[in-house]
Amino acid sequence: MVSAKVVIKNPTGLHLRPAGILCKEAMNFNSSVSFKFKNTTANAKSVLSVLGACVKSGDEITFVCEGADEEEALATMVKAVEEGLGE
Amino acid sequence: MFKGTSASAGIGIGKAVNVEEAELKIKREAITDPEAEKARFQGAVKQAMEETGILAQDLATKVGEKEAEILNGHLLLLSDPMLTGEIENSITGENVNSEYAVEKVCNTYADMFASMGDELMQQRATDMHDIKTRVQKILMGVSSVDISALPEGSVIVARDLTPSMTAGIDPNKVVGIVTELGGKTSHSAILARALEIPAVVAIEGFLSQVSDGDDVILDGSQGVVIINPEDSLKAEYAEKREAFLKEKKELEQYIGKPTVTKDGTAIELVANIGKPEDVEKVLHYDGEGIGLFRTEFLFMDRTSMPTEDEQFEAYRKVAVAMNGKPVIIRTLDIGGDKEIPYMGLEKDENPFLGYRAIRFCLDRKEDVYKPQLRALLRASAFGNIRIMVPMVTCLEEFREAKALVEELKKELDEKGIAYKKDIQVGIMVETAAASLMADVFAKEVDFFSIGTNDLTQYTMSVDRGNDKVSYLYSPLNPAVLRSIRHVIECGRKEGIMVGMCGEAASDPMIIPLLLAFGLNEFSMSASAILNARKLITGYSTKELQAVAEKAMSYSTVKEVEDYMREFISHS
């Protein structure tokens, strides 16, 4: 299991469009991809789960990946968030 | 007669068609073959996704990518493994029918989103209801009202239009839209304007008053709807409709045309807005930018100061929507004419000569001005934002504001936050003092924008709202015209842009004079833009020089007005 912290920069937080892009990235991996935020853990492969975490701009989340391709998954997710998730 | 909110201009005369759908009755039923039921559910989701995909494409080509985004969002939700997984578990675990499982799971999420209490999350709750209904209809074999098959001359009547409904509207057949819910910026309103169908929204209880086939007149410009009108009234509105269409057609020829005078002077024709949502209208009328974005709306009708992020979001939205075109944003212009308790603004004996605008902001740097300027700088990374300082009377005020901008730029540099490095900072010229000192200001500011409403008021020492003295209020008064001409000349001498964001900029009597003086930028309400373009492209600035000279030779406002009236009636 690997994990990394990252700050959400999208101005409206993790709303539908950025959440959709986050999920699409996560689905490319066999590993489980989730993130911890406040007291919840969200499944990064589910838009509803990501939306439900209610992550706002400037919030810090912790990605947790577990599986055969966990290292690559984690690096990809962090990069996607840092690049602004398509916004 | 019913009064609602005018959502899309124009007159519609036709027959009412209620497109509201009967509510689906979802019953919990026990099933015997959970695997087959699961397959039935999966088939319905697949079909729902296909239908939604087609609708999204249709909407994207007919109206625009932005409108289709809602439906693309539905696709994301329909393909969510957590959602489908939970529904499947409910089917196989509880042995219940798909319709019920869909109802239960989707409602859980809709309620969750609705309870988050933020506007975007409310939209997600609506989305959940939309996709739920779509899947259930497929499961139950219920067909939707086919809006694309409505007869010619239909007036659509509904509680509210969903994105799925609106995708099918054919503007050749639908002559009007009336809804019980919604507002100027609701989905139905935006779509009606994009399709140029007259629309009136927010008429409470309308559905119970109208039957299918009723004659309906709606005036989308006035927000008025009439059911089964008398023949004379019908004829009157038919005439109004013709006149509206004729004028519209004439002005539409000017969409996409450059604003250049006959002798080749390029003019910037831009719009005044008060809220980010107004941008849609600006783009519709082919505005070439924003000449005045008033920021007061962010501070009104609330009990606490808007945060920097909230402001940033509003400014960014406009900058992005205008896509690189200039967006002049005026910093807070507020004073004792409005009581805002949380800001410590009290009723002022003489509010327009008192503690307001830049005077107030420079006194409240830490909690008011710096957050606004920082939000503006941050937003400038997303478009062509320019900062405009209002009600400046002396150079020190501008210098102090400019120094604050520089200080904040350094702060952002240190934090590595992006902004437009060469962001322009200009002033609104609206006081007699600023006008008289325009030559001095022109050496330090990046642009002028003449605010004629206040400039006239301050120059003539007249309250336009006071009926007993309002006759003194006219931008065609020689004193005001001299002031305007002086400001334009000073700006031109230093090579800075000079614009105008008061009502005079769209006044047919004044436009010829402004062109002759050499004004670069005309900013007005979006709906006035095309008419102004028609006027400007019909003039030659060289030929107007003689007109301006003549107009400026008169001593009284009456002489100027008579002369200009005479001139425009012949041009």
Automatic annotation (TrEMBL), chain A:
Q: Where in the cell is it found?
A: Cytoplasm
Transmembrane stretches in the record are: none
Q: Which InterPro entries match?
A: HPr, HPr-like, HPr-like_sf
Task: State a GO cellular component annotated for this protein.
Answer: cytoplasm
**Major subcellular site:** cytoplasm
Question: Gene3D superfamilies in the record, alphabetically?
Answer: HPr-like (3.30.1340.10)
Look up the signal peptide feature and give its range.
none
Specify the domain of life of the species encoding this protein: Bacteria
Alphabetical UniProt keywords: Cytoplasm, Phosphotransferase system, Sugar transport, Transport
Residue span, HPr domain: 1-87
Q: Which GO terms describe its biological process?
A: phosphoenolpyruvate-dependent sugar phosphotransferase system
**Would you tell me the protein name for this molecule?**
PTS glucose transporter subunit IIABC
In its UniProt entry, the species of origin is given as Lacrimispora celerecrescens
Automatic annotation (TrEMBL), chain B:
Query: What EC identifiers does the entry list?
Result: 2.7.3.9
Q: Which cofactor does it need?
A: Mg(2+)
**In which residues is Mg(2+) bound?**
430, 454
Report one GO cellular component: cytoplasm
Phosphotransferase system enzyme I N-terminal domain mapped to chain residues = 3-124
Q: What class of enzyme is it?
A: transferase
- In this chain the PEP-utilising enzyme C-terminal domain maps to 249-537
Q: Name all PEP-utilising enzyme mobile domain ranges.
A: 150-223
Indicate which residues the UniProt annotation says bind phosphoenolpyruvate: 294, 330, 453-454, 464
Q: What's the catalysed reaction? A: L-histidyl-[protein] + phosphoenolpyruvate = N(pros)-phospho-L-histidyl-[protein] + pyruvate
| Superkingdom | Bacteria
- Please list the residues that make up the active site: 187, 501
State the InterPro entries in the record: PEP-util_enz_mobile_dom, PEP-utilizing_PTS_enzyme, PEP_util_AS, PEP_util_C, PEP_util_CS, Phosphohistidine_dom_sf, PTS_EI, PTS_EI-like
For the biological process aspect of GO, one term held by this record is: phosphoenolpyruvate-dependent sugar phosphotransferase system
> Where is this protein primarily located?
cytoplasm
Keyword tags: Coiled coil, Cytoplasm, Kinase, Magnesium, Metal-binding, Phosphotransferase system, Pyruvate, Sugar transport, Transferase, Transport
Q: What subcellular locations does the record give?
A: Cytoplasm
Q: A Pfam family this protein belongs to? A: PEP-utilizers
What GO MF annotations does this protein's record show? kinase activity; metal ion binding; phosphoenolpyruvate-protein phosphotransferase activity
Residue ranges annotated as coiled coil are: 391-418
Biological role stated in the UniProt entry: General (non sugar-specific) component of the phosphoenolpyruvate-dependent sugar phosphotransferase system (sugar PTS). This major carbohydrate active-transport system catalyzes the phosphorylation of incoming sugar substrates concomitantly with their translocation across the cell membrane. Enzyme I transfers the phosphoryl group from phosphoenolpyruvate (PEP) to the phosphoryl carrier protein (HPr).
Q: Which family does it belong to?
A: Belongs to the PEP-utilizing enzyme family.
Protein name (record)? Phosphoenolpyruvate-protein phosphotransferase
